[in-house]
Design goal:
GNAT_dom; Acyl_CoA_acyltransferase; GNAT family N-acetyltransferase; Aminopeptidase; about 190 residues; transferase; acyltransferase activity, transferring groups other than amino-acyl groups; alpha+beta; seven-stranded mixed β-sheet
């Protein structure tokens, strides 16, 4: 599932299972980002020690053609991965990543990361990643996509609003040691 080329030769596509080492590399870089404690539920220290089998399974479970989740990456013409987003399908009655019960069938965007040199630039990497994520979710048949953002992550909140997401009114406590709140943002499928 490859998307059209963006400015600067960047292409958005789904990962392939055999790319697990690159999935690991990009995730570890994301977890070293200055706002990682606000943006991710995992820490670098927790996942850096995971065995190869963990990363192989993670990539296989989110690779092109999977039904439950899909990971998209933005890749330069030279093969560098410069951003990623993961979309999880949530079934009504299942538990979400926070341990809460999912009330309706929907998709959940997680793991958003774009390398600093590609954020907010003319190439539109983050927007293209979200376009791919939403297109995949809508094709899976959901009518609603959600994500959570820490109330101190103003840069992310601004992008999500620009991408059409609105605050739902649901708020959860922020990660232990970080405080604050995780705000749910949603977008409904436009028919």
């Amino acid at each position: 599932m490859e998307r059209g080329e963006l400015r600067g030769g960047v292409v958005v596509r789904a990962i392939r299972a055999e790319e697990w080492q690159r999935v690991r590399e990009l995730r570890l870089e994301a977890l070293r980002d200055p706002v990682a404690e606000l943006a991710f539920l995992e820490t670098y220290e927790e996942v850096a020690v995971k065995p190869d089998s963990f990363w192989e399974g993670r990539a296989a479970g989110a690779a092109e053609g999977t039904r439950e989740r899909q990971q998209f990456i933005a890749e330069t013409a030279g093969g560098e991965w410069v951003g990623t987003v993961v979309v999880l399908l949530e079934e009504a009655g299942s538990l979400d990543v926070f341990g809460g019960v999912v009330e309706r069938e929907q998709a959940h965007v997680v793991g958003v990361f774009v390398r600093p040199g590609y954020r907010g630039g003319a190439a539109g990497v983050t927007g293209a990643l979200f376009e791919a994520a939403l297109e995949w979710a809508w094709a899976a048949g959901v009518e609603r996509v959600r994500l959570f953002v820490h109330d101190r992550n103003a840069r992310a909140e601004a992008f999500y609003r620009k991408a059409g997401f609105v605050v739902s009114g649901v708020a959860l406590p922020g990660p232990a040691g970080v405080g604050g709140r995780e705000l749910e943002y949603v977008v409904e499928r436009r028919v």
